[in-house]
Amino acid sequence: MDVVISPTPVSAASQAGAKVAEAIANNPRLVLGVATGSSPLGIYEYVRREIEENGLDVSGITCFALDEYVGLPEDHPESYHRVVAATVTEPWGLKPEQVHVPAGNTGNPRQAALDYDQAIKDAGGVDLQIVGIGGNGHIGFNEPGSSLGSRTRVKTLHPRTREDNARFFDGDMNAVPIHCVTQGIGTILDAGSVVMIASGEAKADAIAKMVEGAVSSNCPASALQLHPHVFVYIDDAAAADLQHRDYYDFAVANADKLPGA
């Protein structure tokens, strides 16, 4: 993992956004995995500015969302169909057919999950996957106990996740769906590279376990240690529990001093 620690959430998001924008510029046909929640919003805003101010071409990219609630109509304001449309599709000027989200409001969500996993494969796989991290270490909606080889499937949301997400449902945890369709950890690990974005002290414990702890289903995000190209962008607060923070700072500061770099 390349761990990049910034003083503020804004600067962390800007660095992560620059990484994503660079990937799009280098591959106009990029297949991009997009995440929801508050963490990646700064990335999406950075890319939007690059499109508007510097002419970044996104006309040929394809996007796949990480997950979707089961049972919410697609036009519900908190369905990830609607959230991704509002934060990525519309601000970036993408055509709806460029953006794919799992079908959660269907009579057979398990089949929808299988179909979604196949759609990613049919697209040639995700080139760059954006992820956040839950306070309990989840990525996507892969809760603690998830198989590290899992594929896109239906999962039951952890009570902590539903409590954390209640803020999007007027604070009503009972309004948060119980089930979801989520890309599996194995699906995420298939991506060519992964950009992780996190900020705030509430994420510090999970970040430390992900980066420095054992690879374990107790912290699903720790599976990213098995991936060869992971870029972790965090602020000072999220880095608070890292034991080897000084080393990560030193490594980033000296990255361009490697001969041939």
UniProtKB/TrEMBL annotation:
GO terms for cellular component: cytoplasm. CDD domains: GlcN6P_deaminase. It is an enzyme of class 3 (hydrolase). Keywords: Carbohydrate metabolism, Hydrolase. Its EC number is 3.5.99.6. One of its GO terms (molecular function) is identical protein binding. PROSITE patterns: GLC_GALNAC_ISOMERASE (PS01161). InterPro entries: Glc/Gal-6P_isomerase, Glucosamine6P_isomerase, Glucosamine6P_isomerase_CS, NagB/RpiA_transferase-like. SUPFAM superfamilies: NagB/RpiA/CoA transferase-like. It comes from the Bacteria. One of its GO terms (biological process) is N-acetylneuraminate catabolic process. Residues 12-225 form the Glucosamine/galactosamine-6-phosphate isomerase domain. Transmembrane segments: none annotated. PANTHER family: GLUCOSAMINE-6-PHOSPHATE ISOMERASE. This is Glucosamine-6-phosphate deaminase. It comes from Galactobacter valiniphilus.
